[in-house]
Model the fold of this input.
Amino acid sequence: MIIDFHTHAFPDELAERAVSSLLATLHNAASGFPEVMYSDGTAKGIINSMDKAGVDISVLLPVATKPAQPKGINSWARGFAEKEPRIIPFGAVFPDETAEAQLEELAERGYKGIKLHGDFQGFYADDEKMLPIYRRCAEYGLICVMHAGLDCVSPRDIHVTPERMARVLDKVSGVKFVLAHMGGNCIEDRAAKLLAGADDVWVDTAYAAGRIDPGKMAELVGRYGADRVLFASDSPWNDPADDIALIRSTPIPESDREKIFYKNAQALLGLQ
Done:
């Protein structure tokens, strides 16, 4: 079994525009990241990529970039998941004065977690306004997936750094934080140095294929512990098949590979 903990898709009528806009942002940032998408960004596209790669379940991580977006985004994602049981949607939340009410509604509807993206949503991980949001996540048992490290939208101003997350962990507890991109895109070593061993931190492998080689991945898995690493692709930005190949070629025990591919996700999502 393979569970992809980090995927994205958009409503059919918005997908082409959303993908084009994100690719333009990537190009303008001149970050050196590949300017390519591995599906068309639609619901059908993500299912096709799952089938091709052999992914059994995908966690869908919508991001609200404006205060008015969460309700519509979450309605679409919920409808997608109702038609396709292989999709587990997390909630889109915009971190403003209504965020706590948004979280309460998501918890009441049975969502398992949320996705936050400081670069796109205009916050730093340790902003005081974010602490009540994290505490509500802990109270409601919502997993909090956060983009961590560099992003093309603000490559010179990283909003979720290991240092900021370390300060968050000093102030809040009981939150199930999943820090994407092995704890920090392009700053993985800094992240592991500060965050490995933290009780409330998991990391995912999103966007690792093509950037992190199998030896380095094995080192990072060893530092965090295989129990704290979740397989993820960041589809459609990466091809899940490439990320699967990376984990299969990483020199770790087969029992650890199984944890990364699905057992850790099953435990975190309550699927066991």
